[in-house]
Amino acid sequence: QVQLVESGGASVQAGESLRLSCVVQGINFPNTKINWFHQAPDSQRELVASITNGGTATYEDSVKGRFTISRDNAKNTAYLQMTNLKAEDTGVYYCNVNYYTIYHWGQGTQVTVSS
User: How far apart are CA 88 and CA 101, in angstroms?
Assistant: First the structure.
């Protein structure tokens, strides 16, 4: 059974940093691309960062230079390091995998940034 569990969300002030974690079970983690999505209040879920099995990272323009995605294959864990947080980063962050054509999601972790 595929399971994703996010953690690390918190309420912070603008300019501060957070590191989100996503533990994934039930898949061949080292060979799977991992995605982080952001869902702002009353908005659709949007892709903010991805990391391939080879470690290549891509980012949505608004987070480039502020967010860093990484992975630890030994721990089946992906991370999203977020720095210089802004009010518009507020929302729920989800990790996601597409495994054998099926999309799997975690329950999300809440990030609230106060300006």
Answer: 31
Confidence band for 43, pLDDT divided at 50, 70 and 90: very high
Contacts of 64 (CB under 8 A, 6+ apart): none
pLDDT in tens, 56-96: 999 999 999 999 999 999 999 999 999 999 999 999 999 99
Termini Cα distance of the chain? 40
